[in-house]
Amino acid sequence: MQEPTDAAQRRAIRPVICYPNDTLPRPDLTLYRAARAASQKTGEVLVPPRDAKCFRVPAGHFFRISSVEGPQVGDLNLWNAHDLSERFYSGKSRALHGTHLGVGERMWSSFPTLRPMATIIEDTLGWYGIDDFGGSVHDVIGTRCDPYTGNLLSGTQYHHCCHSNLTRALADETGMILTEAEPNVHDVLNVFMCTGFTRDTGQYFMKASPVRPSDYLEFFAEIDLLGALSACPGGDCSSEHSSDTAACYPLLVEVFAPPEGALADWESPSVNGYDRSHGR
Ligand SMILES: [Zn+2]
User: Which of the residues 115, 153, 236, 266 could staple to 71 if both were Cys, CB 3.0 to 4.6 A apart?
Assistant: First the structure.
């Protein structure tokens, strides 16, 4: 195809950030960390390999996802514990913060609430940064491994993809049947997963996660949360997912409660202020 004569000039235009985020409400990390330091553990859930488990975290409490036994990535879903229609919005979190989330960044909820559900307060993989391939950890660019894409690409019937794991876990937690639970499962935060886009073809890539046992990612719950975490059948995602061939390990979720008064005048964020009249 013939390029226009000014092709080079058009390509040379500098990009602008879609959503400059300097007006986003800032989390008070100093306050959160001080409250976390004084917190007591209230419970834990061990997520078995190639399976998922639910957990609950009250607003103002903390949860930590840890690598135990071996390198393993996790697919995280979050819902408002009182209304499952308010759920993590991976795409908007990506638009606001970038392709991968880190300390001080938020997991935002779906429309019409669009508010912080959880804030990342500690990340022992924060040192990783962005590698020479453009890869980084904890992405909001992937969706979750699922049996439909596997069937589309290779005709398989595999039942332990994160999508199915999360569906079973939510059904078990809520008493819903699988077909009721499934539509509530949504695009995830890919905890510990190392991913990016290839520069030459723009394709989604993964590589062996740098996570090691004792690494963790820690969150402050901004609202009452129901969470579900799947220990991905991809293990460290160094080669493949959607099969039983990769070495897989459990993931540990721990919940912590701060002492009375530790959060001073912190308040759970209210729902988004748009009036929802949509021009009518
Ligand atoms: Zn997965």
Answer: 236
